[in-house]
Specification:
The structure holds two protein chains of two kinds.
Chain A lengths: L2 E15 L2 E16 L3 E6 L5 H8 L7 E6 L2 E2 L4 H10 E4 L13 H11 L8 H11 L5 H5 L8 H13 L5 E5 L7 H18 L2 E6 L2 H7 L2 E6 L2 E7 H6 L4 H9 L7 H10 L5 H4 L5
Parallel strand pairs in A: 3-8, 3-9, 6-7, 7-8
Antiparallel strand pairs in A: 1-2, 1-4, 4-5, 9-10
Helix pairs in contact in A: 3-4, 3-6, 6-7
Chain B lengths: L2 H16 L6 H19 L33 H37 L1 H15 L3 H11 L5 H10 L3 H15 L2 H9 L3 H37 L10 H10 L8 H29 L8 H15 L1
The chains are: A alpha/beta, B mainly alpha.
Chain lengths: 285, 308
């Protein structure tokens, strides 16, 4: 059982504006635990510190205070210990149009992590890369290996990015808004893929999003962040159905709810569009 | 009436499809000029007479024996031009390569690593940027007796890499923050490999453009130095030809065949390299790409056909 634990982490950025310095507290006293086979959703608006937490977990930034523990031991910061950490913890970026190098082929993006983490040798690397592509439903895999990112659609690119994150054989996967840049029609496919991989590999997953609906659907626990702090946490259904924090209620209200736009409803009723009973008959009440 | 312009448009687009998209007319004309001049500099010196051989005949206009006439001391201008082309190109290429390495080192390394190293590199780059090349060369030239090709090239390189380094630094700053660089960090790539494999290829268009620019400015700079008598001693270059033509009062005596050929070569090579640079710019930044006249006419014809 792999667990990645964040204990009271803080991150403060020092901003320089000419000679004046100011501090920005991006993350304040956040703790959580990612365990194998469970998905934790981190929900919040833009600038609430969600992506900073992803960077801290990936060691692209280091916490100002607080600790990150992998299986109870402090995480490795450099050298072989860092490589070992990267074996276990990987990430899927938000924007699939920015996370693949336009100069390199799809194969390059998969071969490098495979070789770096000793998951393949020069002889077997192409076969292993093709296997990874099959796992994310990109087939025929061989035809994708030599293609460049610009020849792929957004959904295909994000699948490649997921395959790359899986290449080192991670136990913890951080998905930073993995579908927010994608076309609505392919979002569900990518989310279902992530959910399937999580089940198959028993991954500990951190799903960062601003969408409460998918957070409820795909995760076991939800953490709601506001201005760098966790304002609410709990089992997914509890948070959605029985929100405690004022901010969570606002967030829930902000989501468009079918049946609240009266003009749209009236038009739909006039045209006889099929709809749930409680919406169809509201006018009569 | 409607079919004719359409077939014309289709013929144009079919013709364009056969060529790779980057092979624009601008690139082909510029490349052609540069290739011709380079071939002349490479091959012609083997076939011409001794450029330093003096003859009693004095300054003579072009004739069957001396295709480009002779200088005041009876030296063959064509022979001098052939060797001068080789000399000028050699200086240009040495300077451009050195400037490329210097700008890549200070620009990319500083930009990627950041911190105090970047501050130090930026400060150094800015200081070099405002070093005036010509006065520096005059100072060095008046101290050093034997001004060899290498010395001139080094001085020209030292004074010409800074602008390119600043461009590369800002590009690197923008690229290093992109997700694919972060992703390769997460994959566990070493810093030197991130620079060489992930960042450098995306800088190639900018680097090739600044290489061509360095080549032009080095050849012009060397010509300028030679013209005021501070150029390479003992090697023919276009600048040194102009210097001797000026000393020999070619202009006042009407000896156009002495100063026009080197001047025309400088202008032609500068023009050719600039054309190459424009087309590289067009490849980097598609917004600068002008639609070829033929395609424009075809679109116009289609629009008219649609209106009719």
């Amino acid at each position: 059982m792999t667990t990645l634990t964040a204990q009271n982490i803080h991150k403060t950025y020092t901003l320089r504006n000419g000679l004046r310095f100011s501090k920005l507290q991006a993350v304040k006293d956040v703790s959580f635990e990612l365990t194998a086979g469970r998905t934790v959703a981190l929900v919040g608006q833009s600038g609430s510190g969600k992506s900073t937490i992803a960077k801290l977990l990936m060691q692209l930034e280091h916490p100002t205070s607080g600790q990150l523990l992998l299986d109870g031991r402090p995480i490795g910061r450099r050298g072989a210990a860092l490589t070992a950490y990267r074996d276990d913890v990987q990430m899927v970026f938000q924007d699939p149009f920015a996370s693949l190098n336009p100069f390199h082929s799809i194969g390059h993006h998969l071969r490098r992590p495979l070789l770096l983490h000793g998951k393949a040798t020069a002889k077997t690397v192409d076969a292993r890369a093709a296997e990874l592509l099959e796992r994310v439903n990109l087939s025929p895999a061989a035809s994708f290996l030599e293609r460049r990112p610009h020849e792929l659609s957004g959904g295909q690119r994000q699948r490649v990015a997921i395959a790359r994150a899986l290449a080192p054989g991670p136990k913890v996967l951080v998905a930073d808004e993995p579908v927010s840049m994608l076309d609505v029609s392919v979002r569900l496919g990518v989310l279902n893929l992530l959910a399937r991989l999580q089940r198959e590999e028993q991954l500990a997953m951190l799903y960062i999003t601003h969408d409460l609906a998918t957070a409820r659907h795909f995760s076991d626990e939800i953490l709601v962040m506001y201005k760098g702090e966790v304002v609410e946490r709990g089992a997914a259904d509890d948070v959605i159905l029985n929100p405690q924090a004022e901010f969570t209620r606002t967030l829930l209200k902000a989501a468009p709810e079918p049946g609240t736009n009266q003009r749209f409803l009236a038009e739909a009723r006039r045209r006889g569009v099929p709809m749930p009973d409680h919406l169809a008959h509201r006018e009569d009440q | 009436m409607t079919t004719k312009p359409n077939t014309a448009a289709m013929a144009v687009s079919a013709q364009r499809r056969r060529l790779p998209r980057f092979l624009t007319p601008t690139l082909m004309v510029g490349g052609g000029i540069v290739v011709l001049i380079t071939l002349f500099g490479l091959i012609a010196p083997f076939f011409v007479a001794d450029p330093n051989a003096v003859d009693n005949m004095g300054m003579q206009p072009p004739s069957a024996q001396h295709w480009l006439g002779t200088t005041q001391t009876g030296q063959d201008v064509l022979a001098q031009l052939a060797w001068a082309t080789r000399g000028s190109l050699t200086v240009g290429i040495i300077v451009a390569v050195m400037a490329l390495f210097l700008s890549a080192f200070f620009g990319i390394l500083g930009g990627y690593l950041g911190g105090w190293l970047d501050e130090a590199f930026s400060l150094f780059t800015n200081v070099v940027l405002i070093l005036p090349g010509l006065p520096l060369m005059i100072v060095i030239g008046s101290y050093v007796e034997q001004r060899g090709l290498i010395l001139i090239a080094v001085v020209l390189a030292i004074t010409s890499w800074a602008a390119a380094a600043r461009v590369l630094r800002s590009q690197t700053l923008s690229i290093r923050g992109r997700d694919y660089v972060q992703a390769s960090k997460i994959a566990g790539e070493r810093p030197w490999r991130i620079i060489a494999v992930e960042i450098l290829p995306n800088l190639l268009p900018v680097m090739s453009s600044s290489f061509v620019f360095a080549l032009v400015s080095a050849i012009l700079g060397e010509a300028g130095l030679s013209f005021i008598g501070l150029g390479v001693v003992g090697t023919h270059t276009w600048g040194s030809m102009l210097f001797y033509a000026q000393n020999g009062q070619a202009l006042t005596l009407g000896g156009w065949w002495w100063f026009v050929p080197p001047g025309a070569m400088i202008a032609a090579l500068g023009g050719g390299l600039s054309l190459i640079n424009f087309s590289i710019d067009g490849i980097i930044n598609p917004r600068l790409r002008t639609a070829p006249a033929a395609a424009r006419t075809a679109r116009h014809a289609q629009k008219e056909a649609a209106a009719a």
